[in-house]
Amino acid sequence: MSTARTTPRRRLAAAVLVALAVTAGAAVTAAPAGAAPAGAAAAAGQSPEQNAVAPFPVKAWVVGAGPTGFLSAQSGSRLTYRWTRYEDGATTVLPDSGYLTARRTDIVATGSGDGVFTLRDMGAGTDPLEIDVRPLGDGYSLAAYAGTRLVMKKANATGGTDLHIVGKPDGLLVDHTVTGLPADAEIAGITLDSPESAVVRYTGTVDGVKRSRAAVLDIATHALVDEYETPDVPLSGIAVSATHIAWVEKPANANAQVVVTRRGTTETVRHDLGTTANAAIQLVGDWVTYRQFATYGGGAWDPKFALYAHSLTTRETVKLLEHTTSATPGPLGTQLVRGGTFDQGEGLYRIAPGTDGTRPAVTLVASTGEPTTLELVKPDVPDTIDLDRVTAPVPLQWTLSRKSGRVRVELVHTATGKTWKDDGSHFAGGVVGIRWDAMYGSNAAAVPAPNGAYTWRLTADPADGIGPGLERTGTFEVTRRTVPHDFNDNGTPDLLVREGAGRLSLYNTSQPLGAWRIGAPETLGTGGWNAYDRLLSPGDVAGSAHSDVLGRDKDGVLWLHQGTGHALAPRTKIGGGWQVYDKLTGGSDLDGDGRADLLATDKSGVLRLYKGTGSATAPFKAPTTVGGGWDIYNQLTATGNIGGGPAGDLVARDTAGVLWLYLGKGDGTFAARTRIGGGWNTYSQLVGFGDADRDGHPDLLALDATGGATPYLYQGTGDWRAPFKPRTAAYSYADLYPYTVF
Q1: Which long-range contacts (CB under 8 A, 24 or more apart) does 423-429 make?
Q2: What is the mean pLDDT of residues 602-613?
Q3: Is the pLDDT of residue 490 over 50?
Q4: H and E: helices and strands count for the chain
Q5: Is the pLDDT of residue 313 over 80?
Q6: What is the C-alpha to C-alpha distance for residues 95 and 616, in angstroms, rounded to an integer?
Q7: Helix (H, G, I), strand (E, B), or coil: what is residue 5?
Q8: 510 falls in which pLDDT band (50, 70, 90)?
Q9: Distance linking the first and last C-alpha atoms of the chain
């Protein structure tokens, strides 16, 4: 418990407030609408004529604040000091550096170090006041600026320290020695509250006993008017008002406590700060505000530097600002704090006494323009990613308002729901993002991402822990040209496999090209595909730009399963009577009209051409006869244009295992056959399934007839004289026998 000694000359704050009100006039900023917390009254010292928010420099801190404006210091190659008016945001950049303010006034002061001090009244705009203390003799050192006066220290003849109030009224240098200090006083600190009062902490002999005290200095009368015994523990923050004095005690191995005593009494309120760290405090009406010390210079924000207020009447504690970087007393009992709130962002806030003891009013008076929450400043994601024009990886980037911690990016393909997730990387300037390789999955299981609409989702946590995590979404489109035999619209041909249970699966053929591994297949149909005795993929016959599937059932009815780019639509009936054909193949445009055609050989060896129409209801025209004698072949495969001619081609394997090439002439007929080579009778199936290696030439898949059914890839060359390169094993492992591959 503190004890108080009161002198009859103690002045209450009323006189101070009146003096400040006279100098402030109408130049004190009013609170913008909605700036104060719900239920808070307008701040003291506000003028209804003012409602604008002034600018506050980024990476700067508040040095001082008066009735008409504030002083800030901005870090950089050199400190830049600015005086900014509340009223209109007008800014004056001060020359040189080393400025301080006389607290709660518009006076900006500098000292040359040789005993000459210059005081400028930024509100009045009058000529600077120069106070030269050298005529007073040696030994004077500045402790604080108090309006137009200086609080100075000077060693005395007994080994103690005296305090002096030095001024220059009417151009005359005046020096008053502060009364009330013991002769052997050792000054531990001087905290100026206003031009009228300060707190002096000292140790000295009082009534024959060495004591530690905090005394209120009345600057106008240059006398100590109240004195309070202080405990034998470290003290950090200290504050005074017209009604209270407060300090922060830091006992060893215990939390710091704010101790507030009503002046002239022993009525003391203690508040545990919940931390052992140093704290800065100020008295605002019937509240004491406190915050842990932050590093000046506009450094990193930290939630532990939030500003709190504790009521001296109700003992309620409230958070006023989410974080702070600096603070200073303001006019009329207010406090000016550089910090941030989630609602109004970063800037300089006025903390003012509420009406009738209500919580302090919080008003933004100057803004940096920065949000306090982590925000998305700018997405840098293309609206359309054309993978035929740009090379993967494609940068997808987002600029955030400040440094983030963990970043997560999620891409979802709208049509299929396929999802890709990755941790984002951090780049300079608050930019986060990924380099998207346009693939789904990883390593050998990765497959190209399909065309179509995508949603991106960005989540990020603030690195400083201030505010909630960020989550934003957007969209983009992936496009590339359609390629034959592509059933999942990802720009590469696919292998369709009907498994023994009647399930239809899709295997991507994308990585590595020409010798890919089998990743997990996509299911195109869970069952029922055993109803067909013949399955083939003729390309796009229904006009939707996606590859389709044809199936002939055991009754000879031909059915169409139209491709959608990510699935197969329910079947539609094309017609019956197709049991007369023992061989069916498709996948080549034989007449050059841009539509896939169908070839069928009946049991007498006649080859017929069904030209594609592009209609889902009637996908083929009436057949035309190509010619007879095709019963010498046991395998026909439409490959697309592998020979470099004007249209799609056909390869045919005879019963001796010789493979022949029929070059399409572009009118639905073929040139005379040319021999490719022998030994092809080792394969159970030959499948033309598009350009697997993406070199511009269709390729051929040959399925080994032996147990294990290893598939081999024959890469197309585009040269009819040698249409295929030597075979390569298509998979590192496979067991496709006795499955149907097409």
Answers
A1: 424/458, 424/460, 427/397, 429/399
A2: 91
A3: yes
A4: 1, 61
A5: yes
A6: 81
A7: strand
A8: low
A9: 92
Distances (CA, A) of 543 to 369, 540, 590, 646: 54, 6, 17, 22
CA distance 602 to 578: 9
Closest CA to 398 of 427, 421, 371, 423: 427
CA angle 219, 220, 226 (to 5 degrees): 55
* CB-facing half-sphere around the CA of 568: CA atoms within 13 A: 29
- DSSP lists the bridge partners of residue 586 as 598
Check if the beta carbon of residue 74 is closer than 8 Å to that of residue 325.
no
Mean pLDDT in residue range 354-375: 93
Say whether pLDDT at 438 is over 50. yes
List, for residues 524-572, the tens digit of each pLDDT value: 877 788 889 998 888 888 878 788 898 899 999 999 998 887 788 888 8
Partners of residue 478 on adjacent β-strands? 385, 452
Contacts 24+ apart (CB under 8 A), 412-415: 412/454, 412/455, 412/456, 412/457, 413/449, 413/450, 413/452, 413/453, 413/454, 414/452, 414/453, 414/454, 414/455, 415/450, 415/452, 415/453, 415/565, 415/566
Give me 234's structure tokens.
């470290």
Provide CB contacts within 8 A for 87, sequence distance 6+: 27, 29, 50, 52, 68
Residue 46 has pLDDT above 80, yes or no: no
CA–CA separation, 120 vs 117, rounded Å? Answer: 10
Q: Which two three-digit tokens encode residue 406?
A: 């963990």
Which residues are CB-neighbours of 133 under 8 A, at least 6 positions away? 115, 116, 117, 140, 150, 152, 166, 173
Distances (CA, A) of 75 to 227, 296, 368: 39, 9, 14
pLDDT over 60 at 116, yes or no? yes
Count Cβ atoms below 10 Å from residue 125 Cβ, excluding itself.
10
Look at the chain and count its residues. Answer: 742
Pick the range with the lowest mean pLDDT from 168-182, 223-237, 465-479: 223-237
**Position with higher pLDDT, 40 vs 248:** 248
What is d(CA 647, CA 644) in angstroms, rounded to the nearest whole number?
8
Residue whose token pair is 């395998």: 635
DSSP 558-624: EEEE-B-SSSBPPPEEEES-GGGEEEEEEEE-SSSSSS-EEEEEETTS-EEEE-B-S-SSS-BPPPE
Minimum mean pLDDT range among 100-104, 420-424, 458-462: 420-424
Tokens of 48: 């209804």
